Structure formats: structure tokens, C-alpha cells
Amino acid sequence: MLAAMRRVETKRELRAALAMNAQKGVRRRVLVPTMGALHAGHAALLRQAREIAGDDGIVVASVFLNPTQFNSAGDLASYPRTPDDDTSLCETCGVDILFMPDAAEMYMPDRSMNVEETQLSRVLCGASRPGHFAGVCLVVSKLFNMVQPTDAIFGKKDYQQLVILRRMVRDLDFPIQLHGAPIVREPDGLAISSRNVRLSSQQRAEAPGLYAALNKARKAYLEGASAGEVCAEVRREMETLSEVRVDYVQMVHPDNLQEIGGGEKGVQPALLAAAVYFGDVRLIDNIEIFAE
Ligand code: PAF
Predict the structure, then answer these.
(1) What is the DSSP letter of 241?
(2) Do residues 147 and 99 make contact, with C-beta atoms less than 8 angstroms apart?
(3) Each residue's pLDDT tens digit, 67-119
(4) CA 66 to each of CA 30, 50, 77: distance values in angstroms, whole numbers, following the listed order
(5) For the CA atoms of 256, 260, 264, 266, what is the dihedral angle to 10 degrees?
(6) Which residues contact 73 (CB under 8 A, 6 or more apart)?
(7) Ligand 1 center from residue 62 Cα (angstroms)
(8) Residue range 10-24: average pLDDT?
(9) How far is CA 188 from the centre of its chain?
(10) Among the options 39, 42, 132, 253, which is catalytic?
(11) Under DSSP, is residue 201 helix (H, G, I), strand (E, B) or coil?
């Protein structure tokens, strides 16, 4: 649609804006959920959404810093907030409706429902961030109900999130097609993340080492090294950097996140995923290893 973007803050305004578009015979309604602090990675999601929606569809973006998915108050408090820039970026990327609720609009004070995934959310990031994916599933299912999109887009940097949301859509029968968007990187390879701004200059200089190590590991795996060998090598390379603590480096199956055994070689498709603290900034990255 080509009308000016509408920015709404309440569910009621959102419903009214969606109803107006429904009257115009909109076909696809594509949702891009975000937590704001939008960057080039989000811009790519929004542009992909615009393409999927086409001329007779609409793109709905949400900006909501979701408290239920943070398991540390400090992490929530230090998460960057840039609502004015977010609004301009959404406008530039062809968003039709921007939904920017506050926490009181999204959550009743006596809310007592949860949406919990019980397998895929126990591993990788879920192991060190208990409750995180339940918070993600809760807010995303609420957004799905509010917006009733035909399609929704999530970035592959949060690969585990995408896999869990695919499971949620399948198991709870949301009639929504999910799309995974490729990771967007800085020229030096660092995956773009809202958390990158919190890196010190030395940490920022070292952070691209993570993607470099994952790439090297992918090559070694394709040349015959075992899953265990390449994970150990990534860990070793990371631990040579200063102020770095490795949370995990794991090779898993990309659909069910089951670990590929340390001695296994050449199992494909595979996902090599890592989470590494640079000081107190936790960065994640991953690389797909798909049979050609
Ligand atoms: O990926 C994110 O930014 C968030 O986890 C999401 C999907 C917007 C839910 O709050």
C-alpha cells in the first residue's frame, strides 16, 4: 500500500488501522516484530516484508521492548531505546502500520498465562537464559493474535528463536507463514546487533573474530574434521581474546536443534552456533552448513 505510515500505540488503534486496510481488499499482511533500536539487520527484514506484501499487501512492524523475555533487569535497563529513529526507519522501509505499545498496553498486571516450548528452548541460549523463550513465545503469540498476519519475518541471527517460533506455529496451529531472513553483517563480518553499541573499542575490534572462527570451522568440517574438533577450535580461538568468556559453541541439527555428536563428521545439514561474552555483552552468531 502506498498511503503514509500510521503509527499506533494501543490495541484499539491497531485494530482500527487494520480494519481500514482490510476494507481496501489487502491480500497479504506481513508482520515484522522487533524490540526497537532498529539497525541495518531490521531494515533488511522490513524490506523483505515489503517485497512479500507486494503492492496490494501491507507491512506491519511492531516495536516493543518485551520485559518478559529478559532474565536480567540490568540487560533490560541497558537495552538501547531509539523510538524516533525507529519510526523514521520504518517509514523509509515502506511500513504501513507501526505498532509501538508500552508494557501496560501489552500486559495486564495480573496476567497468568504462559506459552512455553518444552524441548527446543532447553538448549543453546535457552540453557543459560531460563524463561527467555517463554517470554518470546508469549509476546509473539499475542502479536500474532492482535495483527493476524498471513506472514511474519524473523532474522536468522536468532536462529533458535526462529526454530522455536516455527514449532509454535506448527503446534498451536497459527495460520501464518514464517520466513527466516539472512544475517546482516558489518563489513568486517560482525553480525549486526543492537548490543554491538555496548562493546568497548577493544571488544569491538575483537568481536569479528567470532564469525571468522565460525567460518574457519565450517571449512574444516567440510574438509573432514569432526563436530567436536571444530567446536573445540572455535572455543580455543575465542579464549585467546581478552575479556572473553564462551557461553557455548555447538553443532546442532538446524530443524530440531539436537546436538551432533562430537565424533560425527560430515553430518549435514548442520548449524554451528555460538554465544560469547565480550565483557558483559553477550553476542550470538551462527553459520549454516547445508549440503550443496
Ligand atoms: O528478536 C527479537 O527482537 C524479539 O525476540 C522479538 C521476536 C521481537 C520478540 O520480542
Answers:
(1) S
(2) yes
(3) 999 988 988 998 999 999 999 999 999 999 999 999 999 999 999 999 999 99
(4) 20, 24, 11
(5) 50
(6) none
(7) 10
(8) 93
(9) 21
(10) 42
(11) helix
Q: Is the distance from the beta carbon of residue 271 to the nearest atom of ligand 1 less than 6 Å?
A: no
Q: For residues 255-259, give the mean pLDDT.
A: 97
Query: What pTM was computed for the model?
Result: 0.97
Query: Is 42 annotated in the active site?
Result: yes
Domain spans in the chain, listed from the N-terminal domain onward: 6-181, 194-287
Instruction: Tell me the three cell numbers of residue 115.
Output: 506459552
For the record, the C-alpha cell of 52 comes out as 512479500
How much distance in Å is there from the Cα of 34 to the middle of ligand 1?
Answer: 5
Most distant pair of Cα atoms in the chain: their distance: 60
Please spell the DSSP secondary structure of 133-172, one letter per residue.
HHHHHHHHHHHHHHH--SEEEEEGGGHHHHHHHHHHHHHT
| pLDDT one-digit tens code per residue, 111-161 | 999 999 999 999 999 999 999 999 999 999 999 999 999 999 999 999 999
Ligand 1 close to Cβ of residue 33 (< 6 A): yes
Per-residue pLDDT of 164-202, as tens digits, reads: 999 999 999 999 999 999 999 999 999 999 999 999 999
CA gyration radius, the chain? 20
Of the candidate CATH numbers 3.30.1300.10, 3.40.640.10, 3.10.320.10, 3.40.50.2000, the domain formed by 194-287 belongs to 3.30.1300.10
Domain 6-181 is of which CATH architecture? Answer: 3-Layer(aba) Sandwich (3.40)
The reply to whether ligand 1 has any atom less than 6 angstroms from the CB of 140 is yes
- The residue that leads in pLDDT, 254 or 2, is 254
With beta carbons less than 8 A apart as the criterion, state whether 9 and 105 touch. yes
